[in-house]
Amino acid sequence: MTKRAALYLRVSTGEQTTENQRRELETVANRCRWEIIAFYEDAGISGAKGRDRRPAYDQLLKDAARRQFDVAMAWSVDRLGRSLTDLIGFMDELNSLNIDLYLHQQGIDTTTPSGRAMFQMCGVFAEFERAMIQERVKAGLARTRAQGKTLGRPKVAKDVEKSVRSLRKAGTGKRKIAKQLGIGVSTVMRVLNEPQAA
What we know:
By secondary structure, the chain is of the alpha/beta class. The chain has 8 helices and 5 strands. It is 53% helix and 14% strand.
């Protein structure tokens, strides 16, 4: 079955052109017998900018989620982004959608066995990064607790808590209690759900 290819082209300044990138990628697609079905071009946009500031890149990812193509092609890894975190996230997203990736300059082609191994390695790195972030968060929470700081939502004053319970006991609705005491409905519900101290 012929693979449908999508080409992502990007240059950082308005004086540069994506023509060379396009020509090289079209040559590869023809050689591999891939049908080019879409071009996504961010001209004059830095790779350091986030997805929200790169409209073509954003559209590429949206169309990937809709499975509109089978392989995403780019001239080089730095055309996709400047940070390793962003790149791993991008590769992880494509991998989860069973979409292949071709990067011309790095010779990465996940339609091949060695390219698929590269995808799997990126998955390992992504998992490792998530684990590292979790560890840092846990360490930060432990340090905060050790310093005697209270975590979570601030406690409701005892008199407010007492008023919530007595109003509810009298049959007042939760929304009315919140309005009457000038607190949120979620705070009212939290107070009512917490066990009362003996």
